[in-house]
Amino acid sequence: GATPTFSNKNSQIKLDDKECAKATLEIIGNVDWTIEGLPNWLQVSQSKGTGSAKVTLTTLSANVTGSDRKAEFKVLNSVTGSTTVTVTQTSLTLTFELSATSLTLSGSGNSSGVFTITTNTDFSISGVPNWLELSQIEGKTTAVIKVKALSENPTTTARTATLTINSLAVGKTTIMITQPGAKPFLSVEEE
Question: pTM score, two decimals?
Fold first, then answer.
């Protein structure tokens, strides 16, 4: 019979930062082989086989961690026992931009305004007071956030809320929402 042979052409595989990024692992040989120990962010077109094969590796998620992620998996076989493959997925360059650092609404109830978060990573907004309503308080991509005052400002002084936006790209950033006070008035009645 033929001499058992096994090798894989590439033991270092690099994938780009996107979900569904693909690369090929080329297995050369004439024996049974099995892939074990895949990271949870990677899938293979076949995990076992006999003889030579081109196995497609596909990322299951974009890498938004801010740094490259690496994993090792093994290709078990009867010739070398096992061979190790190192896979690196580069990190997406995280971006985050806030359209404004402050927003002033009118003094009346139901007054509204918008600000935009331009990003390619998760964000969440906290610190929303009970007199304000936001169209969304979390997201994974660019969003136009509608801010609505639920009531008229009952006082003559402006009320403010500092909203905190958390993002992997920049950590914490804030936007101040201001609702002006009611116009002071005095009514005098004659008897």
Answer: 0.62
Residues 43, 89: Cα–Cα separation, whole Å: 13
Q: Are 94 and 64 in contact (CB under 8 A)?
A: yes
The answer to whether 172 touches 101, Cβ cutoff 8 Å, is no
Distances (CA, A) of 60 to 44, 68, 135, 139: 10, 15, 30, 19
Q: Which tokens go with 29?
A: 């040989």
Q: b/e for 1-18, b at 16 or more Cβ within 10 A?
A: eeeeebebeeeebebebe
- HSE-up (13 A, CA, CB side) for residue 184: 3
- Residue 32, class by beta-carbon neighbours within 10 Å (0-12 exposed, 13-18 middle, 19+ buried)? middle
pLDDT tens digits in sequence order for the chain, 191 residues long: 778 888 888 899 999 999 999 999 999 999 999 999 999 999 999 999 999 999 999 999 988 777 899 999 999 998 888 999 999 999 888 889 999 999 999 878 889 999 999 998 889 999 999 999 999 999 988 999 999 999 998 888 999 999 999 998 888 999 999 999 887 777 788 88
